[in-house]
Amino acid sequence: MAVLRFKALELVDHRKPVDVPQTSQKISEYYGKNVFGLEAMRTTMSGEYFKKLVTSIKHGTKVDRAVADAVAAAMKTWALSKGATHYTHWFQPLTGATAEKHDSFFDLNADGQAIENFKGSALVQQEPDASSFPNGGIRNTFEARGYTAWDPTSPAFIMDSYGAKTLCIPTVFVAYTGEALDYKTPLLKTLSFLDRAAVEVCQYFDKDVTRVTATLGIEQEYFLVDKALFDARPDLIMTGRTLFGHAPAKGQQLEDHYFGSIPPRVHAFMLDFEQEALKLGIPLRTRHNEVAPNQFECAPTFEDANLAVDHNQLLMDLMNKVAERHNFKALLHEKPFKGVNGSGKHNNWAISTDTGVNLLSPGKRPKENLQFLAFFASTIMAVYKHADLLRASIASANNDHRLGANEAPPAIMSVFIGSQLDAVLNELENNSQIAIDKGDNLYLKLGIDKIPEILLDNTDRNRTSPFAFTGNKFEFRAVGSSANSSSAMTILNAIVADQLIDFKQKVDVLIDKGKKKEVAIVEIIREYIKASKAIRFEGNGYSQEWEDEAASRGLSNVRTTPQALDFLVSSTSEDLFIRNSIFSKVELHARHEILLEEYTKKIQIESRVLGDLANNHVIPTAIAYQNKLIHNIKGLRELGLDQGEYTEETIESIKFISKHVNIIKRNVEEMIEARKVANKIEDARERAINYCDVVRPYFDVIRYSVDKLELMVDDEDWPLVKYREMLFRH
After folding, report:
1. Boundaries of each GS beta-grasp domain copy (predicted)?
2. pLDDT digit string (tens) for 282-300?
C-alpha cells in the first residue's frame, strides 16, 4: 500500500491541466443545444400539435395519444440529427441516483429492412424491473412490473458519453399498482398542490393570477481529489469518505482558500464541466473555491423546481464523468474529510405567479407588501408546525456527519429572517386591534409601507441557520450535497401549500363575519407571527446557548437519522400526506423502511471497510515499524549504547504502538460481533437504531488510535494517502 501511495503522489506531481477546446465565445450560441426544448419542438412539430402540447404542460393536463405520436416523431428526427442511436427513460428511483435502460432506435420492418423507429407509446411509457429497485415491500420479487411514464414538463436531452449519444427522456417511476417508486412523482404532486393553494390566496390581491410556480436554485458543493490518490484510498472508493486520516498541520484555519484563485487543473475541469452542462440547458452561472481546501461550488440561476431538481441530478452525474477526463474524482459525500468543512446543497426556494410576481419579494405598493407578508408568515408558520418533518427530509447517514458541525446548520430546525424583518414582525405582533374608518390607511398604520426600504439591502449574513430568508427567497441550507433535492422540496411544498389552505380558510371565516378583507388578512398574519415565534432565531446556531434555548422553546434536536426518520410517519405527517393525496399510507411507510435500510447498509459497509483497513493495512504497517524500533534497540544494546535518553524514548514509542494496536484489534473484534447481533434484528427501525447506537460508536474509537499511529509510523511506511496530500495536491 505504501508503494501505491507514493506512485500515486508521483503521478499527481506530473499532472498538467487538460486542454479544453472552447465551444464558443458566447454561451448563448450553444446553451441548450442538446435539449429538446420548446424552441426545438416549435421547429420540428406542426403548429397545432405544438400548441396542444404547450397547453397540456401549462395546465398539467394529460397529453393525448395523437400529440404524443407527433412529439415522438419530432423527437426522433431531432435526436438522430444529433447522432443519437439509442433512447432511454431517465428516472430517479429511491436509490438516490438516476437510472436508465437504453433501447435502440434500430428496428426491422415487415420486409426485414433496417429502419429507425420511435413511436408515441415508447415515448410515453416503458416497463423496467420494479422489484430490483428499493420499494419498501410494495413490490414482491416475483412481481417485477413497474412503469416509467413521460414527464412532459421536463425536456428530453442528449447525453454524450465517450462518443455514444443517447436521447434521455425524464420520467416518473411507479409500481404496477400505482404506488410511486421514485422522487419525481411526489414532487410533481406537491408542485400542483402548491399551485392550487397559492392561487387561491393570490386571488385576494390579483384576480389575474391563474398559476403559481415554485422556483428553485440549487448551489452544489463538492471536493475534487486526484484520481490516483482516490484509487489509493479504499475507504473513499467504497464509502465516499475517509474513515481514517489525521488532520494536517494546515487545514482551513487561515481561510485562504475561500474565493481564492482557482488552481489551473481545477479551472480546466470547471470550463469543461460548465460547457457540457450549458449544452444540456443547465444554467450554471457561478463557480468559486469554497472554504475547505480542494472544495468548490457551482450554482445555477433559478428555474422551475421540477426542472431544477432534474438538472441537479444530471449535474452530479455529469460532474463525475467530466472529472474522469481530468484525472479527478468529484466527492459529493457530505463529510469526506474529518476536521474540515463538509459539503451541502443549498436549496434557494421561492414562489412566483404567472403575472411575473415573486410572492416572497416585497413590492412597491402597500397591497403588494401585504401579499408578501401573507406568504412570508405562512411559510414560517408551516416550518414551525412541521419542523420535525423538514428534519426528516434531509436525514441520511452522510448528513449526520455534517449537521451540527462548525460549518453546517445544526440539526435544530429554525428560521432566520434578519433583525430588520424580525422587528417588522414584532411590530405587527404587538399592534393592538386596529379600528378602520373610511379613509384610514391601514398599511401606514401597520408600517407595511416601510418594508421595501428595510429590505433594500437586507441580505442574510447568518450562515448557521438551516432555513434562512435571503431577501426574496428562503434558503434551505441543511440539504446534503449528495441528496436528491426532491425529498426536501416535496415536503417544503407540501407544508407551505397546506398552510396556505389554512390561511385562506381562516381569512374567509373572518370576512364572512363582516371583517374588511385587509383587516382579516392582517389578523391571520398576526396570529401566525405569534404562534410561530419559537421557530425564529437570529443568533449563533452553533452555540450551546442556542441548544439550551431551543429545548426551552420545545424545538427538537435530533442528531441521528433513524430517530429523525420517525417524524416521516408520525400521525401529523400521515395526516398531511394522506389528506392532500401526496402519499398513501403504504407509500409513506415504504419510504420510511427504504430510508432505514439505506442507513443500515451504509453504516454496515463503512464498518466492514474500516475493519478491513485496520486489520489488513494499518496494524501490519504499525507492527512492521515497531519491529524496526525493536531491531534498533537490539543493535544499540549490542554496542553497549542502550542506557541513553534516545533508547528510553524508543522504548516508549514501542509501548505506544503496542497500546494502540491492541485498542484497534479489540475494538474491531467487538465491532464485528456487534454487527452480527444487529444483522439478526428483523425490524428495520430497530436494526438501524442498533447500527447507529451500538456499531457506529466503535468508528471513532478505532479511528482515534489509527490516527495516532499515523503520526508515529515513518511517513515512508504509512499505507494510506494522507490528508495533506489529498487536500493540497492538485
Report:
1. 85-178
2. 999 998 888 889 999 999 9
